[in-house]
Amino acid sequence: MATAWLLSPPEVPMQLHIENRQKLIKSLCHASSTPLHGFVFLQGGNEQTRHDTDHTEIFRQESYFAYLFGVREPGFYGAIDIASGKAILFAPRLPAEYAVWLGEIKALSCYKERYMVDMVYYTDEILKVLNDEYQGTGKPLLYLLHGLNTDSGNFSKPAEFKGIEELQTDLDTLHPILTECRVLKSYLEFCLIQYANDISSEAHVEVMRKTKAGMKEYQMESIFLHHTYMYGGCRHCSYTCICATGNNSSVLHYGHAAAPNDKTLHDGDMALLDMGAEYHCYGSDITCSFPVNGKFTGDQCLVYNAVLDSHDAVISSMRPGVSWVDMHKLAEKVILESLKQAGLLVGNLDDMIAERVGAVFLPHGLGHLLGIDTHDPGGYLQGAERPKEAGLKSLRTSRDLLEGMVVTVEPGCYFIDALLLPAMESAKTSKFFNRESISRFRGFGGVRIESDLYVTSDGCVNMTKVPRKIHDIEAVMAGAPWPIKKTVVFENGSS
Ligand SMILES: [Mn+2]
């Protein structure tokens, strides 16, 4: 059955980045008791080549730079004059042969128009321009980006250019404030994340429909990539596709170079597909789990519904002020309850929770902030400590929810020998496991269900539009329609 897909990815209004810059300046001024002078100054990403060769990897903008300026080309710098709010871009001066190999060299005015900034100069003019534009006394002061990414442990690299030592620099102020700006999404940002969700949801459904025993895992990946690029204009994914079937679905980050989605699908396997496209640097992060033959067995229903109940329980409890750590505990509890009801676990639920049995089945965090990065920054405020308990320590945020956050909800239930076997041996936890029933699930793999949620003033909106209930998944896999009404983005202007 042919489906009419929408063939026109949306034009992104640069108003989005104007608003992001205004929000930053407002936050910076709000955080200081005295009027601030100087420039927010960022260096955009540079093109990378493959190892020692001249093969250029496809460029994707650095995320903080993308947030403020939306520039898609490499080699740029950007400044915002804090006093006036004026935005200045600095473009690389391209050599004449660029026009032969890479295309027309654009006039600076083209960048000014496209990116809706106040001024554009060349990168070799930075020092002069900053000196000329500076309204304060003494040497121009630059607020540079330097701070920890709490997911990777890496630090963002402050801008560097020839002559920067002649200016004053501040490395401490900008990072926490700019990061916090990224945590709460504007209406236009919401629209972009919704678009990435719409096209990715559609692609997940397309994969479900085409999945059959005998295929390779990478063919599911290929269908997803084709759909999001062909019909959605998404050149990048938010992360490497995880297309795991059978026991591979208990490998949390399957799909990497050493496990490249290359198993053959067998009748009876569960598939766990964690795939999300990104558009104009804003991403989506969606996981669907289903049997490759299109029909759930009793045991597959049991595990799947345990995770779906957990997913739904969290979503119906989410609202501003709710602690994400509590949401993780709720997710865990619902899964443990289901496993107990099914006879896989025995004993008192509170005792199981106290002994961290939940982390045996759900060892990763419940979810994370999502935006320009899949694991968007800001999960831990400066000075905040990570929880130390098993499972909870993997949380990428321990914060209370705020209106405007986009968070993933991704509970899972996995049968991972490396966790299950020691827990069944441990003096503290062995009593909770019904060995006979659990043995049925060795080699089952796992189930994860992941949706992207936008936190509203009194609840949340699920931005992910894929079949979740077992009868809906079975129907779609058997050919039933699953219309995804694409959200018309950017129509209502900005907020
Ligand atoms: Mn995720």
UniProtKB/TrEMBL annotation:
The record's catalysed reaction(s) read:
Xaa-L-Pro dipeptide + H2O = an L-alpha-amino acid + L-proline
User: What SMART domains does the database record attribute to this sequence?
Assistant: AMP_N (SM01011)
Q: Please, one GO biological process term?
A: proteolysis
Name this polypeptide is given: Xaa-Pro dipeptidase
One short Pfam family name for this protein?
Peptidase_M24
Q: How does it assemble?
A: Homodimer.
Limits of the Aminopeptidase P N-terminal domain: 12-153
Lineage: superkingdom: Eukaryota
Keyword Electron transport in record: no
InterPro entries assigned: Aminopep_P_N, Creatin/AminoP/Spt16_N, Creatinase/aminopeptidase-like, Pept_M24, X-Pro_dipept-like
According to its UniProt record, which cofactors does this protein need?
Mn(2+)
Which family is annotated?
A: Belongs to the peptidase M24B family. Eukaryotic-type prolidase subfamily.
Q: What is the lineage of its organism?
A: Eukaryota, Viridiplantae, Streptophyta, Embryophyta, Tracheophyta
Q: What's the EC number here?
A: 3.4.13.9
Q: Where, by residue number, does the polypeptide cross the bilayer?
A: none
Q: Name one GO molecular function term.
A: manganese ion binding
Q: Which UniProt keywords are given for this protein, alphabetically ordered?
A: Dipeptidase, Hydrolase, Manganese, Metal-binding, Metalloprotease, Protease
In the UniProt record, does the keyword Protease occur? yes
